[in-house]
Design goal:
Strand content: under 5%
Shape: globular
CATH topology of the largest domain: Growth Hormone, Chain: A
CATH architecture of the largest domain: Up-down Bundle
Order of helices and strands: HHHHHHHHHHHHHHH
Number of helices: 15
Low-confidence stretches: none
Oligomer: single chain
Largest sheet: none
Structural class: mainly alpha
Distance between the termini: 44 Å
CATH superfamily of the largest domain: MFS general substrate transporter like domains
């Protein structure tokens, strides 16, 4: 591993310290995320409607990121990365300190998400700046793997702690632990030196007619994915009484599965083409949504719970098919810079719809039931497939 990293990254760069900070940040996030949903349900007493409102504010920084980068355009990527780490620390520290009052918890989660999104915006920039010429793709792969390993370790910390302690989970104590780990990450990040320019493609919206279909695909994907990301774990907690240990274990299994399935999905995209993958993944999604929304009507409670857990993991795997749309963008782009600008804008477009789905998804569940919520997700997936069927790279690149 060490030799391969040295072959991928410049020796005079700070990639070792940067990757150590990614590992530590991932560990902190894994502990935080592994507890978040159960804390909101069990301690803050948030129902499905409250959860949707909370997710609206948690996703808002992703939408605001491009404007934040415009304001701080004179700051280096290293400085922005450190600012993001510090803001993330502040958010998790607030969650460990403030009483379980809904407004205060939402503010804390907003601050944490703001820092996380700032760092997210800088990770790729730093990785590409530290990589040797022609090694950018491999470098990004290492970056993602190292962060995932840290996050997985955080989930397992929660699982092991719950197994040892049993009974009622001391949420505040573990948020404090997440904060302590994040403080360590901030200290490590301060050792990152350099003056890398932030990615210009993330400082502006880039719209071109030939990418219209890609932006629409991002809208459909962001909408249907947000349903599972926000309400998938909450269904297991509110309807089946899943503990923090079970939720963290489920996150861990999903992370491991996506880690191993990602290369396979990539090969399928290369073998059969991105259009086929964008269309076919929805057939599986419809099945997943059906069982997630209706298992409690079909099976006994314990079996229904297992079916939902399996389908949550399946959704994580089929979500890897979203890589196909990025390959589509690459195929019709005139240059790597145009591709990066388009994908960055796609992320912002994605967040525009996710904040709305988070808000209205909670209301739909509360007003007409969880079944309707997941029917909506399936319909969005079918709309995604129908629109993907119109993709024609030869004609699209000429628009």
């Amino acid at each position: 591993m060490g030799n391969r990293l040295r072959e991928t990254f410049s020796e005079n760069s700070c990639y070792k310290i940067f990757f150590l900070s990614l590992l530590i940040t991932g560990l902190s996030f894994g502990i935080y995320k592994g507890l978040q949903d159960n804390y909101l349900a069990e301690v803050v007493s948030m129902g499905e409607l409250d959860r949707g409102i909370t997710e609206f504010f948690r996703e808002l920084p992703g939408l605001l990121l491009i404007f934040i980068l415009i304001v701080f355009y004179t700051f280096s990527a290293e400085t922005m990365y450190k600012i993001g780490a510090t803001v993330t620390l502040l958010g998790v520290a607030m969650l460990a300190i403030v009483p379980p009052v809904k407004v205060l918890v939402i503010v804390s989660m907003f601050v944490h998400s703001l820092g996380d999104h700032i760092q997210l915006g800088m990770k790729n920039t730093l990785t590409l700046n530290y990589a040797r010429p022609g090694k950018g793709g491999v470098a990004l792969g290492y970056q993602n793997s190292i962060h995932q390993v840290g996050t997985l370790a955080g989930y397992l910390v929660v699982v092991l702690a719950f197994a040892v302690l049993g009974g009622k989970m001391p949420f505040k104590l573990f948020f404090a632990l997440s904060g302590a780990v994040m403080l360590w990450g901030v200290i490590v990040s301060l050792r990152i030196t350099g003056n890398s320019e932030t990615d210009d493609t993330k400082r502006r919206f880039y719209f071109k007619k030939k990418f219209t279909k890609y932006y629409m695909l991002e809208v459909f994907y962001g909408a249907r994915k947000q349903v599972f990301f926000t309400f998938g774990p909450y269904v297991l907690i509110l309807m089946y009484g899943a503990s923090a240990m079970v939720i963290s274990l489920l996150f861990a299994v999903s992370a491991v599965c996506t880690y191993f399935f990602a290369p396979l999905v990539g090969k399928i995209i290369d073998r059969f083409g991105y259009k086929i993958v964008m269309i076919m993944d929805t057939l599986i999604l419809v099945i997943v949504c059906f069982f997630y929304g209706f298992s409690h009507h079909i099976f006994p409670e314990k079996i229904a719970f297992i079916v939902c857990c399996v389908n949550y993991v399946l959704d994580s795997i089929i979500s890897l098919a979203s890589m196909a749309s990025n390959v589509y963008v690459q195929d019709i782009s005139d240059s790597p810079d145009e591709m990066k600008a388009t994908i960055s804008t796609g992320v912002s477009v994605n967040h525009m719809i996710t904040v709305l789905i988070a808000l209205f998804g909670g209301w739909i569940w509360h007003a007409v039931g969880v079944e309707t919520l997941f029917i909506m997700s399936a319909v969005l997936g079918l709309a995604n497939s129908a629109y993907a069927a119109t993709v024609n790279p030869e004609k699209d690149r000429l628009r």
